[in-house]
């Protein structure tokens, strides 16, 4: 009888412990992804610290994942909850819509289509546009008096180009750019790691590279961004893409992320990129100081 009572008490205790555990709040987790370049990692960290500072949510950082489609597939498949994206990239590369140049039209159409096709939402834009920048050495720009892509086209048959893998293949990338400006290089463009573009340019391994307008190193080296005088590139407003069910589950998350809207100018983003890329400062500290001052 004592053994039977012991078993009964044990089962009651186990059941009670299970009930208590079931009533305990579980720590929710938000998974943030980013693409594989400095600005994305900075933006991912800004989103992470913003969430950690204003909610009790745990943030799992899945940074440096890869290109656009890696992140897009990750969020569509539920492997990540949000990541930073650019309106023009989403509009042309993911949605495959014909290029238009009005920033508001691009953003609104992208926002509408992402909800309709993928159940994904866009937060209020951070405040800057990070477009593609076709960059040459300052010495070449001065020697040939080059300011625009149209002017540079006459020199490209003597030059070697270097681009990231994605730019070589995307809808708004090199194929369309080459056609628009009749760019013909001495050989097929080299595929370069995005972090090595400007080093390769300075070391004269290449003469023409595809960077971004907010790259920090642009303001610290003798480099010239060629004007897109035919307006080939669409606008690329930066924002966060978030799964709709995440906002449904965490109603307070949307206004917290929207607080970041308009806080980053192109100059400020370039400064943050330079602190990490040029000065080799710690990303978390750079972001912490930025958010404290915002």
What report would you give on this structure?
- By secondary structure, this protein is an alpha/beta fold.
- It folds into 2 domains: 29-129 and 236-293, Periplasmic binding protein-like II (D-Maltodextrin-Binding Protein, domain 2); 132-226, D-Maltodextrin-Binding Protein, domain 2 (3-Layer(aba) Sandwich), CATH 3.40.190.120.
- The chain contains 14 helices and 10 strands.
- The chain has helices at residues 2-23, 38-54, 68-76, 87-94, 103-118, 138-144, 149-152, 165-169, 174-181, 197-202, 244-249, 253-258, 266-277, 283-293, and strands at 29-35, 58-66, 82-86, 120-122, 132-137, 161-163, 190-191, 208-212, 223-226, 238-243.
- A 5-stranded mixed β-sheet has the order 7-6-8-5-9. A 3-stranded antiparallel β-sheet has the order 3-10-4, with helices on both faces.
- Strand 1, helix 2 (38-54) and strand 2 (58-66) form a beta-alpha-beta unit.
- Helix 2 crosses helix 14 (283-293) and helix 4 crosses helix 5.
- Mean pLDDT is 90; it is low at 1-26.
Short description:
This is ABC transporter substrate-binding protein. Keywords: Signal. This protein has helices at 2-23, 38-54, 68-76, 87-94, 103-118, 138-144, 149-152, 165-169, 174-181, 197-202, 244-249, 253-258, 266-277, 283-293; strands spanning 29-35, 58-66, 82-86, 120-122, 132-137, 161-163, 190-191, 208-212, 223-226, 238-243.
């Amino acid at each position: 009888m004592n053994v039977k009572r012991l078993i009964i008490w044990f089962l009651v205790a186990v059941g009670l412990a299970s009930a208590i555990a079931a009533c305990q709040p579980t720590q929710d987790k938000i998974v943030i992804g980013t693409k594989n370049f400095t600005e994305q990692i900075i933006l991912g960290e800004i989103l992470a610290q913003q969430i950690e500072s204003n909610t009790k949510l745990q943030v799992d950082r899945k940074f440096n994942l890869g290109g656009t489609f890696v992140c897009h597939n990750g969020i569509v498949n539920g492997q990540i909850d949000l990541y930073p994206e650019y309106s023009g990239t989403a509009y042309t590369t993911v949605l495959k819509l014909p290029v238009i140049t009005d920033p508001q039209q691009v953003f609104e159409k992208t926002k509408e289509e992402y909800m309709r096709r993928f159940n994904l939402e866009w937060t209020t834009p951070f405040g800057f546009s990070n477009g593609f920048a076709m960059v040459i050495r300052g010495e070449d720009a001065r020697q040939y008096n080059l300011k625009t892509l149209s002017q540079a086209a006459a020199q490209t048959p003597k030059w070697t180009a270097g681009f990231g893998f994605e730019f070589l293949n995307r809808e708004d990338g090199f194929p369309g750019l080459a056609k628009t400006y009749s760019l013909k290089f001495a050989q097929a463009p080299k595929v370069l790691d995005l972090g090595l573009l400007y080093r390769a340019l300075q070391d004269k391994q290449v003469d023409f590279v595809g960077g971004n307008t907010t790259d920090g190193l642009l303001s610290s080296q003798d480099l010239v961004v060629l004007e897109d005088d035919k307006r080939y590139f669409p606008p690329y407003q930066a924002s966060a893409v978030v799964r709709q069910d995440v906002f449904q589950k965490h109603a307070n998350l949307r206004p917290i992320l929207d607080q970041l809207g308009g806080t980053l100018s192109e100059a400020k983003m370039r400064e943050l990129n330079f602190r990490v890329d040029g000065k080799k400062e710690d990303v978390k500290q750079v972001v912490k100081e930025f958010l404290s001052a915002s």
